[in-house]
Structures are given as C-alpha cells and as structure tokens.
Design a protein that fits this description.
CATH architecture of the largest domain: 3-Layer(aba) Sandwich
Strand content: 5-15%
Largest sheet: 8 strands, mixed
Strand order of the largest sheet: 1-2-10-9-3-4-6-5
Order of helices and strands: EEHEHEHEHEHEEHHEHEH
CATH class of the largest domain: Alpha Beta
CATH superfamily of the largest domain: Vaccinia Virus protein VP39
Length: 327
C-alpha cells in the first residue's frame, strides 16, 4: 500500500481542559501540538529537539519502543547496528534529565542477526551497558515480552536452511534514574492460580526446601488482590508470561486506517505492554512520554488510565493515523 501523506493541520485545535489532576498538562516552549486530547499532546517532530525543550524532572515515566537496529531497513527509519549507540545515547541523556529521581525509563528493544551469518548481534546488550555506565541509569529489572505473532525470520536460517528456531521474546528493560523508582506491584496483581487456591485450602507445614528457602505455614495464605506478577507477564490471566501479539487486524485503529487509505504502522506494540508498566510505575495525573510514538499506543493507554501524556513522532502519516486511537 502506498503511503498517503495527509494534509497538515492549518489551524491548531484549542487545548481541551484537563479535569483529573491538580497539575496542568506540561507545555513545551517553541512547539505546538499536532493534536491534543484532554490529557495529552502529540507532536510532529524529531524527538531530540522536543526532549531538549522539556524542563528538568518534568516527566514521570518514559515508555517507548524505538526503531531496532535490524540488518534490513524499515520505512520508519532505523540506525545500523554499528551506529546504534551513537544514534540513541543523545536521546537517552535527555530522557535521564527530564525524569525525576523516582522516574522510570521502560525500553522495549528487540535483537537481530548479524548480516549474512546465523549469529546474533550484541548491539542491544551494548546499549544497555552504555545506558548504565555512560548515561547513569540503574537497571531496575529485566522484563520480557513473549510475542507469539513474530514471524520466523530471518527466513534463510529459520525456514529455508532450518538451522535456527523462531524468535518469540523481546527485551523490555526497566531502567531508573535512581535505585528507588516509584513502583507498586499491587497495581498489576494477577488472579491466583488454581494450584495456589488448592494450596490455600489444604495449608502447608513448616519446612525447608532443597534450595534452602524456609516455607512457613503462612506461605499458603492468599493476600488480598491477587498474586504478584512475574517479570514475564501475560495479558488476561491466568498468567505467567508477558504474552501478547502485535498483529491485531480488527481493532479500531486498523479499521480506520484502512478506511482512510493511510498506511498502518508496521511495528506496533500491543496496548497491554505499555499498560502493564504505566500501571506499575505511575499514578493518575502523572506524565508519561513516548519519544518514538509511532501509532501512539502509549498515549492512548495513558489517556484511558488517567495519566497525562506526550507523544513525539517524526513521520506525519503515522501521527495523523494515531488520532484514530482516540475516536
């Protein structure tokens, strides 16, 4: 499908009043939103100049999935593996600055193969080390997204020669400005498993497991609300995996894009991914930013959860289509 560039807005829509938090939406000097909602603003711009214009400690959480360093080029633009650190670290430095001491940076990033050989690149691990050692972030926790909808790529190694298996997991690094970011795992509790419910009914005796962990009778008691989510979390419990695909074909965004003849963003992440971290790391009224917004899934989720949001996207067609998420 050919990319259809929409008409740019000729007049700025008035900001809608924010009714839900004591603080107003943050403004960015020198930039006018492309569109806005009661809780958020979307900007058509490269992310770096907008990030530089934001005040220090003005954003509670950054949740994003930047273009990966794949060995084949994507239409939305992606840096080469050997240049990825040089490209990404200026963004990271500004993200560090605009976070408060208890702020978090959630980075979804996928791996890739080295060109021409069936071996994996280490670019994303090098990036993680640089974010900690050079920028100053703390790694709060490694999390993982299991995406069963991923294609068996590269085809040469997976489906032709059959010498590799299909990738199905992507890294989600929870980074923080300090060792003590704001977080509450009670906001992402999961329903108890049937085994835990049976254990609660039967009870347990005091014992020591082979691992050395001491099991007390109180271990079988069900705390209010549910079980604590693991770092690989599933949508729609019963859950043990952060498991959701990104191949939705009948959601409102996709349908409206087709009706309008606008190309659907080719690398959307599912709403459940930002939803999990926004619930875990922010409160209502906090500000969530996505500097590589794409179809603005993060902003739409933040709006639904009562968080204020800022979305930055340099491809106008993607930003125009992202309005459909707020229909």
């Amino acid at each position: 499908m050919a990319l259809v560039r929409p008409q740019r807005l000729t007049t700025q829509q008035p900001l809608l009043p924010f009714d839900g938090a004591a603080r107003p939406k943050p403004t960015i000097p020198g930039f006018i939103p492309y569109y806005n909602t009661p809780l958020g603003d979307a900007y058509w711009s490269d992310a770096l100049p907008v990030l530089k214009a934001l005040p220090d400690a003005s954003i509670n959480a950054v949740v994003t999935s930047p273009p990966y360093a794949l060995h084949f080029k994507k239409e939305y633009g992606n840096a080469e593996k050997q240049d990825y650190l040089e490209w990404f670290l200026p963004f990271a430095a500004e993200i560090f600055r605009i976070l408060p001491a208890d702020g978090s940076f959630v980075l979804n990033i996928g791996g890739s193969y080295n060109k021409g050989v069936p071996t994996r690149s280490l670019y994303h691990f090098k990036l993680l080390l640089a974010l900690v050692d050079q920028v100053g972030f703390h790694l709060a926790q490694e999390c993982f997204w299991f995406n069963p909808a991923k294609m068996p790529m590269p085809a040469e190694w997976v489906t032709v020669r059959r010498i590799r298996i299909k990738d199905a997991v992507e890294y989600v690094w929870w980074l923080a400005k300090s060792p003590w970011p704001k977080a509450d795992n009670r906001a992402v509790l999961r329903p108890y498993s049937r085994d835990m419910e049976r254990l609660n009914q039967k009870g347990v005796r005091r014992t020591t497991r082979p691992s050395g962990h001491h099991i007390k009778p109180s271990f079988s008691k069900l705390a209010p609300g549910g079980s604590i989510a693991p770092n690989v979390v599933e949508e729609d419990a019963p859950a043990d995996l952060l498991k959701f695909g990104n191949n939705a074909a009948n959601d409102l965004y996709t349908q409206r894009c087709k009706e309008a003849g606008i190309e659907i963003h080719p690398a959307r992440f599912p709403a459940a991914l930002p939803e999990f971290f926004i619930k875990l790391l922010t409160d209502e009224g906090d500000v969530v930013l996505d500097p590589f917004a794409g179809s603005n899934t993060t902003g739409a989720v933040a709006e639904r959860l009562g968080r204020r949001w800022i979305a930055l996207e340099k491809v106008e067609a993607y930003l125009q289509a992202s309005r459909f998420r707020f229909a």
